[in-house]
Amino acid sequence: MLLGGIRYLLPVIKAAHEQGYYVITADYLPDNIAHKFSDEYVNVSIIDKEAVLRVAQQKRIDGIMSFGVDPGVVSASYVQEKMGLPSFGPYESVCILQNKDRFRAFLAEHGFNVPKAKGYSNLNDALADQDAFDYPVIVKPTDSAGSKGVTRVNDKSQLKAAVEHAFDKSLSGHIIIEDFIEKQGCSSDTDSFSVDGQLKFVSFNAQHFDLKAANPYAPAAYTWPSTYTKEQEAYLTVEIQRLISLLGMKTNIYNIETRIGTNGKPYIMELTPRGGGNRLCEMLRYATGVDMITAMTRYIIGDSVPEVGQKPYNGHWAEVILHADRAGSFEGLEIAKDLPAEVIEEDLWVKKGDHVNPFEGANDAIGTMVLRFDKANAVFKAIENVSSWLKVIAL
Fold it and tell me: Minimal CA–CA distance to 158: which of 180, 127, 181, 179?
């Protein structure tokens, strides 16, 4: 059973079918695209863990996960525990990882580098602490994904609007305010894999943003390798292993966000026990040949996991998240002919005449583009200046 129905589930469904598995997709939106490719659809709220458990028991499923869909991770872990199915790790550990407030507290308790942070369940309490933080801060829901509800606040005059926005996007009615960690180079947001609690594949990338977008904190592109030094990557790898060991995690894909602060400290910003959105696992399969999707699909059913190991990048890779600058009617893409890259894949999710929205989060993306470059300076120049070679035309 796969919780959710978004586009990023399609390669998981494909991998499951290649293994001969029967796939049930579940959420409360029957028109979601993944349901067109699964073998069966059930209508249930994926954040209602008891309802998901009842359906899973009725269907007598052999495995369950939530890939690229944050709201379903806790429910999937709950069902795993209650039905004795192959699991990500302890249910309580998954709950910690899926709640930004509890996660920050866990990091602090165990001596990880962590920004000062505090969680809130109502507007008045958050505003009462407006003088307790050193601005800028980041305000965000504790349980949302896709950069929804996230705002950088430069001074306390902006705090109320940001807090209200975060509460509006929170599923559980909880938000977090934390110090904004000014970064060296680019932050990283990519996927890694453990087998029986031991990291077998670790990746770092460079996360890029469109500062002109409606939400400048929604990732607009990714490049591999990262901007980190080997020493920084090694430090973070040790800390990631320490974290999943403390939590008792098992075999799993992790979407991991890290950054290096201007203070020189490496930070684990997020670690969620699921494949990331924005096709990150697919990008890593392109770049290294490592197939985490098939490995995870087999594990979650209880079958043997194919070998997963560290492999180098085959060149310099980029993924561009296609999006419109403003609302309008989609007309097409214009790509410069002198782009110094091989276009590996252009995956467009809209057609001419479709309405498109300004880029406020991952759900406003209209497609992706996969590029391979031979040189690092070429990939960075292209991705830091996407508008010089790519036009998304919306009228």
Answer: 127
Q: What is the pLDDT of residues 143-170, one digit of tens each?
A: 766 567 889 999 989 999 999 999 998 8
**Token pair of 185, please?**
């180079």
User: Which domains, ranges and CATH numbers included, belong to the chain?
Assistant: 2-85 (3.40.50.20), 116-179 (3.30.1490.20), 188-394 (3.30.470.20)
Contact between 79 and 46 under an 8 Å Cβ cutoff? The reply is: no
Measured between alpha carbons, how far is 200 from 141 in angstroms, rounded to an integer?
Answer: 31
Q: What are phi and psi of 61, to 5 degrees?
A: -70, 160
CA angle 8, 252, 364 (to 5 degrees): 20
Token pair 């979601």 is found at 32
Within a 13 Å sphere around the CA of 173, how many CA atoms are in the beta-carbon half?
4
Query: Is the predicted pLDDT of residue 134 greater than 80, yes or no?
Result: yes
CA distances from 363 to 99, 144, 147, 333, 338 (A): 21, 12, 10, 19, 30
Residue linked to tokens 């310099």: 316
Instruction: Tally DSSP H helices, then E strands, for the chain.
Output: 11, 19
CA distance 211 to 362: 15
Residue 270: predicted pLDDT: 94
Distance CA 198, CA 224 (A): 23
Q: What tokens appear for 145 in the block?
A: 């994904």
329 pLDDT tier (thresholds 50, 70, 90)? very high
Judged against a pLDDT cut of 70, whether residue 176 lies above it is answered with: yes
pLDDT surpasses 90 at 42: yes
Q: What is the pLDDT of residues 210-225, one digit of tens each?
A: 988 888 888 999 999 9
Q: Which residue has the tokens 């996660």?
A: 103
What CA–CA distance (Å, rounded) separates 29 from 146?
18
